[in-house]
Amino acid sequence: MELFSPAFWLALLNVVFIDLILAGDNAIVIGLAARNLHPSVQKKAILYGTGGALLIRIVATVVVLWLLKVPWLLLVGGLLLIWIAYKLLADQGDEHTDIQAGTSLWAAVRTIIIADAAMGLDNVIAVAGAAQQHLVLVILGLLISVPIIVWGSTLFIKLINRFPWIIYVGAIVLGYTASNMITEEKRLMPFFTEHPALRILFIIAVIVGIVLAGYRKRSASSKAQGERQRSYS
C-alpha cells in the first residue's frame, strides 16, 4: 500500500472508525476514573491518563503487528476478531460500577491507564488487522481517534444510542477485516488467490454469520430484559 494513496486513506478511515466503535467502554472508564476530582484537575487526569494509554496502545499494536507475521497467527487474529465483532452486537453493555474513582491526580491517571490496557485488547487486534500491517496507519489512526474518544466520547455514545444501526455497520466492518485477515494468511492465501469467488463467498458468509448471530443474541437479551422488567412492575 503506497503512502497517502486512495487505498491508504480508505484504510485510515477504517482504522479510525473501528477504534471509535470499540472505544465506548474506554470512554466510560475515563469518565468514571476522574469523576471525584476537582474540575481543574479532571482535565489533567484525562489528558495524562489518555496519553499514557495511547502510548501503551501504540506499543501493544506494534507488537501485534509483528506477531501477525508469524505463521497461522493471522488466522488466529481473524478468528478473535470475528468473536469481537459478535460480542459488539451481542453485549448489552456494562455499567462498570467496579471502576474506582481516583482521589488524586496520579491515582486517576493510573486507573485510566491500567483499565484501558486491560480493556484494549479488542481495539489492538482490530486496529492491527484493519491497518493491514502498516505501522504508519496504526499510529495515525490512534492519534486521530484517541482525542475524539476523550473529547467527543459522550457525543459518539449518544449517537450510537440514537442510531443503533451504527453498531451493525461497525460489526460489518469488523467482519470484513477479520475475514480479510484470514484470507491473507500466508498458508491459505494461495487457495483463495486461485479461487477468488470462494474468497468473496467466505467474506460474505463471515459478515452475514456475525450479523445474524449478534442480532439473535441481542434480540433474545432485549426480550429477557423486558420480561424481567414486567415481572418487577
From TrEMBL:
InterPro entries: Integral_membrane_TerC, Integral_membrane_YjbE. Pfam families: TerC. Keywords: Membrane, Transmembrane, Transmembrane helix. It is a multi-pass membrane protein. The keyword Lyase does not apply. The keyword Cytoplasm does not apply. It is found in: Membrane. The chain crosses the membrane at residues 6-33, 45-66, 72-89, 101-121, 133-151, 163-182, 197-215. NCBIfam families: R_switched_YjbE (TIGR03717). Belongs to the TerC family. This is Membrane protein. It comes from Paenibacillus silvae.
